[in-house]
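Methods: example folding runs. The two proteins below were folded one after another, and each record is reproduced exactly as written to the output file, sequence line first and structure-token line second.
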Amino acid sequence: MDFGLSEEQEMLQETVRGFAQNECPTTRLRELFDEGVGHDPALWSALAEMGVAGLIVPEQQGGAGMELLDLALVAEVLGEFAVPSPFIGHSLAVRGVLLRGSEGQREAMLPELASGAQIATVALHESEAVWAPQDWTVKLDGDRVSGLKMFVSHASLADRILVGVQGGELVWVDAKGEGVQIEPVEGVDRTRPIATVTFTRAPAELLVGGSGTATQLTDAAAVLLAADSFGAASKLIDVDVAYALEREQFGQPIAQFQAIKHTIARLGTDIEPSRGLWWYAAHALDHLQDEASRAASIAKAHITDRAMNAARQSVELHGGYGFTWECEVQMWFKRIMFNRSILGSPDQHRERMAELGGY
């Protein structure tokens, strides 16, 4: 049995990686990070032209017809380069339409999302503790939705918002329509701006007809965040190695010091073996539904925790410089911090995977 990637999947990653290296090098990332807008229209437009916006959209609706694992492979690369884009929120909105939308709704919604002509995001969080579908309290009354959602990524940029409502249902809302108030919030990760969104009897279209559940959507979110964190942590290890080879103390590179070598080696053995967790969880969401939720929580809890440790260690390896704004480590540190906190902390996901495992 082959547990590796297919030739097409490797090519997908190579293509996106080449694009990110050319169009979002660290110098450009620094400019965007300092600006704090979390978005470069040219970057997103180019990603959409490459087919990233519609990666999992069926071919008959303008997409590439790929699976969640392919989406997660792109998330890894975008995390590796900390690319500021609405990719995760947009991809989850697409996933939600595929899971819960009727055939007519898919035909109406997906082509514009696949082309990138419309940008979408998801509104799932209601507080730090409330993110799971069974806990949602935002209400749908007929075709009107009311309530508050927090930590909505790229809400000010989005044309549409996929909103989780009471009963685990999903509704489609015009982000610029009546009854929608978006208040930007100062977030830690400047590559992904967040907002609090208040819905006051906002017109909404209930997604009906699909066989999927909102839990499958939050599980997909956990996998994409794990993949993004994996990419960011892998990047930090490369940054640590480069810095250790360049920085000198006592007339020699600090890479020669045993403590430095051992620390970086431990980080490598912490991160690389966890790759299989999000690969398997992504595969399970499309092919092994009975195992998918638990696998998604394991990946989210374990990888974001390991990635956060790698980020902390990277700051320390850079010494006093590592704590400054000028040090590039902070951009990936904050991205990982965001991933770890959003849509369930590691402790919350460990509790969930224990429950799902019958403990």
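Second run, written to the same file directly after the first:
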Amino acid sequence: MADAMATTAETPNPPAKSFLARLIGVFFSPGATFADIAQHPDFIAPLVLAIVASVAVTETMLAKIGMERIVRMSIERSSRASSMSATQMDQAVQQGAKIGGIIAHVGGVIGPGIFLLILAGIGILILVPVFGAKTNFKTAFSVTCYAYMPAILGALVTIPVMIFGDPETFNPQTPMPSNPAFFMDQQTASKALYAFASSVDLFTMWLLVMLAMGLSAASAYKVKTRSVFLVYFGLWALWVVGKVGWAALAG
């Protein structure tokens, strides 16, 4: 009996899965994959992939759609368009395009990292102060980065939409058909309704589920997936309420 116990105690943990195995696993076997990530945290590869996807989408948008066209459409859809002359419109578009181009280039590179750090920080607050679980930031950030991998699919959908779609109808707020707002006319629809429709997004819901599964694994399953999901969902719902309320006031 003692020998059996010693043998069991000396059995090493299984080696970490490769990045490719984890990338496939988050889609087809997320439970086992997140358990492996929590056991062997690593965020560099998924973070780099997220940045590459973000840059690819941003640069495709700037090359195919153009920042001037995006700024012009944004102004035309706003309430101030009716009070602007053609000259004022052109000046506003030129100024907006210069600033917007810089923001787009920089945001494409640093945006994913900042967003994922915020999500992981929220995850730590959910696990530690709220539920009293123990984990570290590297583990939480690692599962968050892998939970973001469905966004790569979103990039693969968005890029063809921009390349083969009509540039005049492209809306950077709803770049792909993953929410009802993509199929709505922003100029004629209620701003509050449009804000709500753009928030009910397939990839957003997918991300919330993946975050819940990953952070549950990061807590060594001391916190249930459902509990983490409900907290994230509640925060998302508050954000949507604020977004819709702001849109209603602006409209």
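Comment on the second run: The chain is about 75% helix and 0% strand.
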